[in-house]
Amino acid sequence: MEISGGTSGIAEMLLQSHADEIHLLPALPKAWGTGNASGLRARGGFEVAMAWENGQLTEAHLHSTLGEDCTVRTAATVSVTCDGVQVETEQSESVVTFGTEARKTYALSVLS
Q1: What span, in angstroms and rounded, lies between the C-alpha atoms of 28 and 43?
Q2: 36: how many CB neighbours lie within 10 A of its CB?
Q3: At 9, is the secondary structure helix, strand, or coil?
Q4: Distance (Å, rounded) from C-alpha 88 to C-alpha 4?
Q5: For residue range 78-105, what is the model confidence (pLDDT) as tens digits?
Q6: Are 108 and 70 in contact (CB under 8 A)?
Q7: Which stretches make up the Alpha fucosidase A-like C-terminal domain (predicted)?
């Protein structure tokens, strides 16, 4: 059975992973104003779950399977925690970078 490219197209609207960056909600359709997604895979060994309201990211969880550094691009400014502890990050306008450990999950919380 052949699977259409529709599923991968939908995933690309929610998450893009290239050039060593994970871009969250790069092309969210206006009709999908509020929602969530989980089970998305990103390069570097990351599993991604996220939620959004009014077209804006509200939270994301990235599970590191390999322990690679993680660079996330999002329109929101975020803080990063792991096991309830603040993670040291490097941030510029819309990009946050942080180190990860394999088999750990990192929570991104949008700062107001």
Answers
A1: 20
A2: 13
A3: helix
A4: 41
A5: 999 999 999 999 998 889 999 999 999 9
A6: no
A7: 16-108
Gyration radius (Cα) of the chain, Å? 14
Angle (CA) 45-47-50 rounded to 5° is: 145
Question: Which helix (DSSP H) or strand (DSSP E) does residue 11 occupy?
Answer: helix 6-14
What domains appear along the chain, each with residue ranges and CATH number? Answer: 6-110 (2.60.40.1180)
Q: What is the pTM of this model?
A: 0.90
Region for residue 25 given its phi and psi (left: phi exceeds 0; alpha: psi -120 to 50; beta: otherwise): left
Distance CA(26)–CA(75), nearest Å, equals 9
Residue 8 CA: distances (Å) to CA of 3, 4, 15, 17, 63: 10, 8, 10, 12, 20
User: Contact 48/100 with Cβ under 8 angstroms?
Assistant: no
Q: Which residues contact 85 (CB under 8 A, 6 or more apart)?
A: none
pLDDT of residue 3: 45
**Pairing mode of beta strands 35-42, 46-53:** antiparallel
